[in-house]
Structure formats: structure tokens, C-alpha cells
Amino acid sequence: METPTARVRGLGSAQEGAEHWWTERLTSIATFALFVWAIISVVRMGSLDYHTVTEWLREPLAAVPMLLLIVATFWHLKLGLQVVVEDYVHEEGNKFFTIALLNFFVVIAAAFALFAVLKIALGTPG
Q: Could you tell me if residue 1 is inside a domain?
């Protein structure tokens, strides 16, 4: 027998609600902090020409946070859109297909963004 408090502390019927909620909150904080870093970095850069930006991204202290920003942003996007799908798509088959399509899109888009940054960061200076 469980007390009402023990039931409230549980994860819900799917046994994963609290973890999803916390992950969504943590990715939002990480994304916000990294976007603040990106905005401050771009403002301090001065010139936004191709050469300046690529030289900036070749620095590890710029490339690593940019990669983290991409991962946090796409992870947060996936979590948020998954909640929307779970709330508004009621047929289980459509829900499964939509979430699978969402996951595929997020992974592909994040891979392209990560590749672009890595190509600049690891490319030859020119």
C-alpha cells in the first residue's frame, strides 16, 4: 500500500514523466546560457565577415560551446515537440509515426549543423 505522497512522487503512468520534464528544463537552461554566450561573442567580434567568423570558430573556446549549443538546442526542440505530439495526436499509430519522423528530422538537422561547425573548426586555416 502506498501513501498519497509516494504516489505523487512517482513518475506517472508512463514511468518517465519526471525525467522528461527535468531534461526539458535542463536543456532550456543550457540552451539559454549558450545562446547568451553566442550573442555576446558575436557582438564582441566586431566584423562579421567570413574570414573573422571562421577564424573565431577555429578556436576551441568557440567551437566547443557552439557544438554544445547545437546539441542542447536540437535536444530541447525534440523534447518540446514530442510533448506537443503526445498531447495533440491521439491515435497511437499516428503518434508513433510522428514521433519517429520528429526524431529522424532532429538527428539529421543536428548532424548537418554539427558537421558544418566541425568542418570549419577542423579545416585548414586559409
A: no
pTM of the predicted protein model: 0.83
CA dist 40 and 54 (Å) reads 17
- Residues 24-43: pLDDT tens digits? 999 999 999 999 999 999 99
Q: Give the structural domain span for 118.
A: 18-122
Question: Does a structural domain hold residue 31?
Answer: yes
Once rounded to an integer, what is the mean pLDDT over residues 66-84?
A: 97
What secondary structure does DSSP assign to 54-70, as a single string?
HHHHTSHHHHHHHHHHH
> Which of 47, 55, 59, 60 lies closest to 125 in space, CA to CA?
55
Rounded-to-integer distance, Cα 15 and Cα 10, Å? 7
